[in-house]
Amino acid sequence: MDIHSTEERLSFARKSLIGLSVGDAFGQTFFGEERKVLERIAKRETRGSEWFFTDDTVMGIAVYNIMKQFGEIRQDELANLLADNYSKDWRRGYGGTAHSILQGIGRGESWQNVSPKAFEGMGSMGNGAAMRVAPIGAFFYDSVVKIKEQARLSAEVTHYNEEGIAGTIAVALAAGITLENRLKESSINAGEFIEKIFYETPESDTKYAIRKALQVSKDSSIDYAVSVLGNGSRVIAQDTVPFAIWCIAHYRDNYEEAMWKTVSALGDRDTTCAIVGSVVVLNTGVEGIPSIWMELTESVENSMFW
């Protein structure tokens, strides 16, 4: 029985998108000279000017709007919307491969031709599909089958590689599990949370890297966590998603703490913070995001991409 209407499901997805955008913009403010960045993190010193989100959020908006329009992922429409939003402002931090794929789609090439050709026919195993997917997990929170199916569809248009797809599915599962537990007012511990995601993630290096998160306790040093799980420095799913899942597992109850822990790992910090923020907000609610962060972050709904 479907206990939530499409409108309610979209409200869950929108909540995830807002958490994504604030996390993305927050993480983006911590690039710069490493010593100074670490000093700011130690002091919990945020930047006072407006925070702008990156391609992580721009692509998340496209995912959300396709869900809003169709109630599911339609790959051709998603590919075209991703390319359209890219053309509106390509200076949002897109990676080199994303430029190539989205420009190709924008020229009228089929994503089915462009996406699988990346990296000499291997497809992209980057983290770019994982960073935008949590709204899908929120929308289909009560069906693992739908989460996995729809997450895969969303990934393939730009990341036609099993590692990129696996990372995307894992993040979508994290979102669905988090929201389902929130709605049922039930809880699982960090280990159970990680195990659930591990068992449902497709066979891949990413899947087994996620299992390593079970070896890293909450009180481990951030350097140790990064040494085991990565921090997105390689900009691939295997090096990004496991750390994000670890942060989510241990900091689901506090959006602000989750962000500070995530950004302290450095690496691809806008993306790791976007992933963590997009999931943790499903437990804390938007009201769990510091109000000043909400005020500073560029508005998703008032942006050119909405």
Question: Care to describe what's here?
Answer:
The chain has 306 residues and is mainly alpha-helical. The protein has a single domain (6-296), classed as ADP-ribosylglycohydrolase fold (Orthogonal Bundle), CATH 1.10.4080. The chain has helices at residues 6-28, 34-43, 55-70, 75-88, 96-106, 111-114, 118-121, 134-139, 144-156, 162-184, 190-200, 205-211, 222-229, 237-251, 255-263, 269-284, 291-296.
Layout of secondary structure:
Layout: H1 6-28, H2 34-43, H3 55-70, H4 75-88, H5 96-106, H6 111-114, H7 118-121, H8 134-139, H9 144-156, H10 162-184, H11 190-200, H12 205-211, H13 222-229, H14 237-251, H15 255-263, H16 269-284, H17 291-296
Helix pairs in contact: 1-3, 1-16, 3-4, 4-5, 9-10, 10-11, 10-14, 10-16, 11-12, 11-14, 12-14, 14-15, 14-16, 15-16
What's the helix count?
17
Strand element count: 0
What is the correct CATH architecture?
Answer: Orthogonal Bundle
Order of helices and strands: HHHHHHHHHHHHHHHHH
Q: Which structural class is indicated by helix and strand composition?
A: mainly alpha
Query: Ranges with pLDDT <50 over ≥5 residues?
Result: none
Structurally, how many domains make up the residues?
1
End-to-end distance: 32 Å
Q: How big a fraction of the residues is strand?
A: under 5%
What is the CATH topology?
Answer: ADP-ribosylglycohydrolase fold
Shape: globular
User: What is the CATH superfamily label?
Assistant: ADP-ribosylation/Crystallin J1
Helix fraction by DSSP (H/I, runs of at least 4): 55-70%
